Model the fold of this input.
Amino acid sequence: MKEAGVRPNAITVTSILSACSQLAALEKGKEIHRTVIDSEFETNEIMMGALLDMYAKCGAVDEALNVFNRLPDRDLVSWTSMITAYGSHGQALEALKLFGEMQQSNAKPDGVTLLAVLSACSHVGLVDEGCHYFNQMITNYGIKPRIEHYSCLIDLLGRAGRLNEAYEILQRTSEIREDVDLLSTLFSACHLHRDLDLGVKIARLLIEKNPDDHSTYIMLSNTYASVKKWDEVKKVRLKMKELGLRKNPGCSWIEINKKIHPFFVGDKSHPQSEMVCECLTFLASHMERDELLSN
Done:
């Protein structure tokens, strides 16, 4: 587009910023921002919102706050984006403080905003605060909780070890009682806190609903292993083998010099995979050496 001499408009810039958000391509997003400033581009609320969203999703909280503070009028989307930026990057207290400011303004929070608040509480373990905002969502704002809200609540209670309380919420709420994702969230918490009895109960429910999901078997095996039930570990592993289940390879990516590099577990298709493996081996050997020296 640049080579053709075509000047981008607000729609073009907004679309590119959205793509940067999805890819977490911060440097490319900053480049677009600089272009907007240098070109004295005429901005609008939608473009500024996209810019705020890009910085927020890329983890550049300070840059997101700078954009937020320059907004002439803060709408529901901008408030929510900034709360999400704080909450997603370990600044839950700032997120809750900003939510308090939002409540004092003319903006009325919706389900997405409350989800950001609950997520912020979940990330740093603010259990009582999370329960308070969950109840406030229903009583003060008349918002019916969705699966995502319950997921935050179950995760929050689960991380805090309040497993029976989380399980009771699942059991008494008909629309979420058999939700696989919520059951999986609580199952992970059972593994974390080594609650074998409840963990096995939930694992059976998950296997009944999705017998081909390898992750349930792996988590169940790990839960048994955490309490040294080695015979049960063996049974679970044999069952996985009988069913032909195996774990799907994980994927990650990193941005270096404005280029996105994806990586898959066991994949060697990347042109620099040999060098990457050599570097990782080198780092691992140094970590082992340092551990031996420290002991």
Notes: The longest strand covers residues 251-256. The CA atoms of residues 251 and 264 lie 4 Å apart.
